[in-house]
Amino acid sequence: MNKLLSLSLAGAALAAVCLLAWNLPAAAADEPKRTTAKNGAALTLSPKSLYVDSALPADDPANYRFRTVHAAAAAAVDGTEAEPMVIYIEPDVYPMNGTLTDRGLYIDKDWVSLVGLSADARDVVLADNRGHTIGAQSPSGSSPAETLFVTGTGFHAENLTIGNYCNVDLVYPKDPSKNQAKRSSTITQAYAIGAGNKDKVLDKFTFKNVRLISMLDTLALGEVQRAYFQDSYVQGTDDYMGGGLIHVMKNTTLHSYTNKPIYAAGKHGMAFIDSRWEIEFADPGDLTLAKNASTLYLINNAFTDLNGNLRSIQWAPYPAGHIRSYAYRTTLNGKPYRILPEENGTELTEDQLPAYTVYNLLKGEDGWNPAGENTGSAGGAGGSFPANITMPESSTIRTGEKGAELSAAIFPSAAPQHLTWSLDSDLALLSAKQGSKVTVEGKNTGEEPVQVTVTAAAYNGIFNRTKVTVYPSYVDPPSFTEPPKLSIGSDGFAEVSYQLDLSYPGGTREDQSQITWYRVDDAQGSNPVEAAVTRDNRPSHTYTPTSGDVGRYLMAAVTPKHARSLGGETLRAVSSRAITLEDLPGTGAAKYGFTTSFEQFPSAWQPELLPGTWTVDTHDPADQQTKWTPGAAGKAPWAYAEGINGAAGGKGLITAERGARLLYTQNRPFGDMSVRLEANPEKTAGQGFGSPNGQYLEVYIKYDTASRSGYALRIERTTKYGIATDYTLYEYVNGAGRPISDPVSTTAFNPGAVIEVWTEGNMLYAKASSSSVQSSDQVKAGLPNEVSLSAPIGGNAYGGLGIQHTGTVSAGNRTQLKRLSVTYKDAAGTESPAGESMSGARTYTVKQGDTLSSIAEGQLGGARDWVKLYEWNRHLIHDPDLIYIGQELLIRE
Hints:
The chain is mainly beta.
């Protein structure tokens, strides 16, 4: 046990008794010095017992007395668990003086204890006011914004406050003249304390009567294996605690301003014993204890809804079937309460409570007992009680094939590892009923997959479950009774038709064939480029051609399949002719417009700039404030999937790699154009992206994808607010962007965002709105939920567009694209950004028998001018000897 945890400064007299009892033996070569603290406590100072008082005229290292915590920390030596290095601190506010690029105070020695010389933790304050991008920054991402950073193991703090006052006022009751207003109202990552050391394991951190003050990410102790908090206070908004192997809080107050206090508990969970939760929501909402599904232990916890806005308490926003939590005597506003969903939690019995003592949870293999509990009662067979069972995530098996091996382990590891397994269905079979591992084999003879529940239980009734989906055995894929045929209707739609033998003795199976559409160079299917794909086992029998298909043939590749088969032999069908401009609906430039819901969008890596084709890649713009690596070449930057939080409830194209980008190339001249995008950021507070360090979404318009010139609307997370984004219009010339409008802060980039950008002559316009209801904080800040922007532009004849995302892409930070619509108008005389005149530009549609030479002779007056024609249309023509009927070639006068 850390002897410092027995300290309790209830008053000066008691403090003196306790501190005298803790006098640390001095080394023989160092004479101990005696002093009296301001509260009357007698202290014996030595190389391992230092004293800090800001009222001292100067540091006095010979007598182990210092004016600042920094000076004492610099003089500290490594302690041990039996004899810690102690720094006693007199009451005052001690500024940590962090800089823009570094923390102010490091504790770099092992077994260091910071002990405030007052029973009131508010009297001794270690303070800073730096947050991510607001007083702290880093070129590599997350800023060093911690008030205090620990790199040694065995750290202990007692009777003091560690606060980061970036987003919260410093209130010092002992001397109000030292109060300090918060640095900013924009909530950002501002850690009170952090810890980490790549060269050693950090373990056994303890906090007693400590106040930990900040808002977002208060505790950054994810690298600490075991931590114990007693009689303490922790406050924050989201993500203000979690991590490690297991952290335990006892008789501690947790004050939550928003709904996700725990980022993720440690490997073995996080425990709250005899603790109080103060919920102070500004708006109605659900308290989801852990942002990421985690094992939590809540023993005698009392929740109080301070503002009447708490709708429910939930284990996690997206519970996982194999992760279980445990509760005993939970109350909300004084009444018994069951945390939701009930199927993911166990209400403990009296007989099971011995498993949830501080000692049983933290003892590990070395018997750590920071609370000084009676270890005789925490025995059970083998000296520990089962508190949790870790189970694998859900899995799938197929009847007739190798089963799934499931492993489970009881925590703590010292508890008897005796597990009993069971199934809730006879459509699967267990290889054994006892042991730490079993194999589950499928016995499903039906047509549809079924989900079975596998349960593992310990001797004291603690259990956990996982799901196994059991598929029936494979049968042969369906055979074609009629091969695929591809036709282009008079309305321009392409359709592939075929017939399969889907019959079986019980009826007819559903067609789940995989159909991929390509644009190809000729009737032989040369040089295929993906145009549309099948998703979710829904065959894409039809395809709507776009301008990128003009002059190209279409090909459909059909791989026959149903629910009980793998894919069979792929057959291909090619259209009998190339797509012409007449196949597209509308007239003139309107034929080049399109709408997509992204359901059939080919999201695989495609880095080439091809006319009428999407480039799908990643890009790290030059204006980024931090260094990051874009997604690797070959990896799909986007995925068609459902997101979480603001992007839950439906599928769309969601960012999968950092720097995800889409570019759409057009080579003919256009006049005005418009882009309408529907999007769902996963962030739901209006901030849009993970951090305010250059993370944004840009929508390009009137854009030349080759030179990267044109215009854009940028939506960027701002340091001005933690509940809004900035909308700004940009001009790009050769990849370099500059703002051409003032930024407008708005809540329009929230779930249900609709973004419109368009041109009218020499004006660029944008407007955006969100269907999300504003929070009370957004209303109080006077932030609009709609925004309109405009700026004069020089104009150009470009028709390309694009989307660039620079934000992080971890779950919760992504952006989902739901629908995109693009319209065009015919070109008028305009100027390109580079100053090249496009006045008088026109197009020529390739006809049967045309060559570049014959077109040049007829349109430009000489066959030798085919070179000009080729240069003007390089992105459309890959081989000057190969052009296609229906292609529209640009001709400049």
